[in-house]
Amino acid sequence: MGKPFNTRDIIIRNVSSGKTKRSEKYVPSFFFMAASLSIITSIGIVLTLVFDAYHFFSKIPLRQVFGTKLAPLSPTPSFGILPLINGTIITSIIAMFVAVPIGLTAAIFLSEFASENTRKTLKPIMEMLAGIPTIVYGFFAYSFVTPLLMQLIPNLGAKNALSPGIVMGIMIIPLVTSLSEDAMNAVPNSIREGALALGSTKLEVTLRVIVPAAFSGIISSFILAVSRAVGETMIVAIASGSSKKFTLDITESMQTMTAYIVEFTSGDAGSGTIGYYSLYAVGLILFAFTLFMNLLAQYISRRYREEY
Asked: For the chain, what is the radius of gyration of the CA atoms?
């Protein structure tokens, strides 16, 4: 029989043979390169957007860029992006009206009221919603949700902002639920037990103690869900249509920033034209908006975080 495994002997043998010195020389460099890859990729994306968007902003005045008329393929093209921003914000707000109450309620149930077996069963099923391809959600919104809503709202158009907003809300429910539940699970059990010992009911402990204690994580989940809704493409591209009219009527067709990019990358804009560079301008604005939302989520998380 060979010698028994002895960590101390292995360390002494590696040090004496010089293996440790060689690994210390090359392995940290490998890990540094792996860690730097995401940073380099992010920098490359930002530089691509900035340089190509510069061609657009250098030729189109800002008063037109932030106007309400968007007609990029007309004989006298106009590039007002407010209709796109308006469509993006409205569909995202509708999505949050769906995702926040359902997702937060589900998180409260899973964290505070569900048994261990129930939690193990329901949570994976709910998280399956996050794995469904967004194009499937788009067809679901167009072929099922829209006809259903048309029976309830007679003047609802076949392409509208309401249907994709609702379906986007369904899509981001797992994000709100999972992050909010993690925030509530991070609250120590001693706080729950103390509140119950003072005579509070289970519901009072949940709403007046646990939810306020997990407030930073819950709000962060809402903001990250908004960012996810803002960046959604296929649902709005299929179910919301391509109307570039500036309107607040959710029963009418609207176009979001991501849907505009999808439409023009299909070949409508020739390479090197103003319409082509408008794609990068819209992409840069979308990137700035989502970056702001993520920074806001981090700020709220740090500012209101409870440490135990």
From this structure: 26
Q: How many domains does the chain have?
A: 1
In tens, the pLDDT along 240-297 reads: 888 888 888 888 888 888 888 887 776 666 676 777 888 888 888 888 888 888 888 7
17 located within any domain: no
Residue 183 included in any domain: yes
Q: Which domain holds residue 151?
A: 77-303
Residue 27 to residues 19, 35, 223, Cα–Cα distance (Å): 12, 12, 38
Please report where in the chains the tokens 């940073």 appear, as a residue.
Answer: 39
d(CA 34, CA 27): 11
| pTM > 0.85 | no
Encode pLDDT of 208-247 as tens digits.
888 888 888 888 888 888 888 888 888 888 888 888 888 8
Q: Establish if 94 belongs to a structural domain.
A: yes
pLDDT digit string (tens) for 196-211?
888 888 888 888 888 8
> CA–CA separation, 308 vs 306, rounded Å?
7
> Which residues are CB-contacts of 95 (< 8 A; sequence separation ≥ 6)?
165, 166, 168, 169, 171, 172, 225, 229
What CATH number is associated with residue 106? 1.10.3720.10
Q: At a CB cut-off of 8 Å and minimum separation 6, what does 129 contact?
A: 170, 171, 173, 174
Determine, yes or no, domain membership for 64. Answer: no
